[in-house]
Amino acid sequence: MADIIFLTGGSGFLGSHILIQLLEQGYHVRAAVREKKATHFKQSYERFKDQLEIVAIADIATDQFPDALKGVKAVIHTAAPISGRVNDAESLLKGAVEGLLNVIHQAEKAGITRVVVTNWHQTTKEAALQTEGVTAYSAAKTLAEREVWNFAEAHPHIEITTINPPLLYGPLAEGFSLPNPDYPALSTNLIIYKFLTPEGTFPAYPLYLDVRDAAKAHLLALDSAPTSQVGRKRIIISSPHEVVFADIISTINAKRPELKDRLIKTPPREFPYKRLDVDLKRLEEVLKMKVEDFTPLDDTFLDTIDSLLTLEKQWTAAGFDIKIPS
C-alpha cells in the first residue's frame, strides 16, 4: 500500500500544489478540509479516485481526528487563517498557533514521527499584534513555527522540517476552485494580479519562490535525512533568480502583447538587492534541491498571468464584474 500523508490546507494556493504533487507521485492523501468545502473538494479530484480521502473538519484548532491519523507516514501542515478574511491580528495569531499545535500534538499521539510545516517572516508576538493583512498572516505563521521548535525540543523523536519561503507566485493548481471573485483566496498571487491594471502596485520586495518549487520542497522533506545527520531542518528557500520588475513587465508586454493596454503603468520599484542569497548547499544537503531544479523566472510570472486570466474569464462568463483590488 502507498504511504499515507495527512495534509492540511489542501484547498489553498500552496496546499493544492502539494496535494497534486503527492497524488501524482503515488502517495495516498488524507486531506483535512473545512466541512462546507468537503463535497466540492472531493469532486475536484475525482480522477484520483480512492487515492484521496477527505477528512471534514469544523475547526483545525479544536477538532479531534485520531482515526484520520491511523497508519499515516507523515503530516504536512499548511493550513492557516487567510489574512483577507480574518480582520484582526490576534485572531490570525490564535488560529495559526492553536491549529498547528492541535495537529502536531495529535500526530505525536498517533505515533507519527515526521512533520513538515510551512512558515516565514520574523517578528515578536507584541509586534505581530500591531500588524494586519499579509504581514499579520506571515507573523502568525512565524509564531506558530516557534511553537514547532519548542515542541521539537520536547519530542526529539519527531522529525520536523519547516519550509520558509518568501512570497509565493505561480499558476493555480488543478482542483483549485474560485467560482466567484474571492480575491483574498488568491493569496500572494493577488500581488501579481495587480500587474493587470494600469493603477496597480508592485510587490514590497523582489524576493519570491514559485509555488510549484515550494510544493516540491515539502515533498522532498518527507524523505529528508534525519536531524541527527543534518541538524535542525529549518529550510530558508527562495528563488535563485534575480528580479527586476521593469524587466518582468517588459517580458509580459513582449510575450502577451494583447495585455498592453491593461498592464501596470506605475513606475517599477527599485531595490538594492534582486534576490535572497539562499544557502544552496544547505538546500542540497537537506532536500537534495539544486539551482537547476527551480522554475525559470519568466515561466513563473507568465504562468501566473495566464492562470489568473483563465480564472478571470470564468468569472466574467459567470456574470461577475472584475475589480482588481488596489
TrEMBL record:
InterPro entries: Epimerase_deHydtase, NAD(P)-bd_dom_sf, NAD(P)_dehydrat-like. SUPFAM superfamilies: NAD(P)-binding Rossmann-fold domains. Gene3D superfamilies: NAD(P)-binding Rossmann-like Domain (3.40.50.720). Pfam families: Epimerase. Keywords: Oxidoreductase. Residues 5-225 form the NAD-dependent epimerase/dehydratase domain. Transmembrane segments: none annotated. Belongs to the NAD(P)-dependent epimerase/dehydratase family. Dihydroflavonol-4-reductase subfamily. This is NAD-dependent epimerase/dehydratase domain-containing protein.
